[in-house]
Amino acid sequence: MRLAADPRNGRFLAIVLLLIAVLLGYLLLVHWWFVAPDLAIASQVQDLRDQQQRFAGIVAQRPLIEKRMAQVRAFEQGNQAFLSDADANSAFSDLTQRLKQAISARVKDENKCAIVSNSNFKGGEEELYERVTIQVRMRCSLEPLAQILYELENSNPYLFVDQLLIYRQQIGYVPPGAKVRPQTALDIRFNLSGYLRKAGKKGA
Known about the structure:
Radius of gyration: 41 Å
Strand order of the largest sheet: 1-2-4-3
Low-confidence stretches: none
Strand content: 15-25%
């Protein structure tokens, strides 16, 4: 004996199928063709508005930024850490003169401390500012040497001493068995550097 189908189940199934058909029709015929592009455009418009607000904030800060930049430029011009020379050639001479001044200020007798030779040094690592270096060879005793190096590294503009090498040398000939103590001097070699205000290759 077959049971009669319930009309209510048939209507419910028909409604479900109709809803599924409407949803598929909406997705295939309406959403992807009309709604999705509008949503994408709305998202782009919102992104553009956010960017506009950020740019407007930056533009509003322009007077403050220009003021800060002017302060930085003024500080840079008045900064005594850099050599005042315009180019490396004049800076080489300036470094040599500053070294001579430091020696004359600390040593009265040139025989006790003097420059043997100095030469310009070009090369080394690229830095943010152009570095100027002279290679120095001196004959000097230890005490005035320490004072000279201290004065060089604690002055304006900023100077830097590196590659320091010290050798002990005997001056003159002393015969074997002589009671005279041999005279000794220090052979000192180092690099003396300073920076120009203009940018170096690394900062270009």
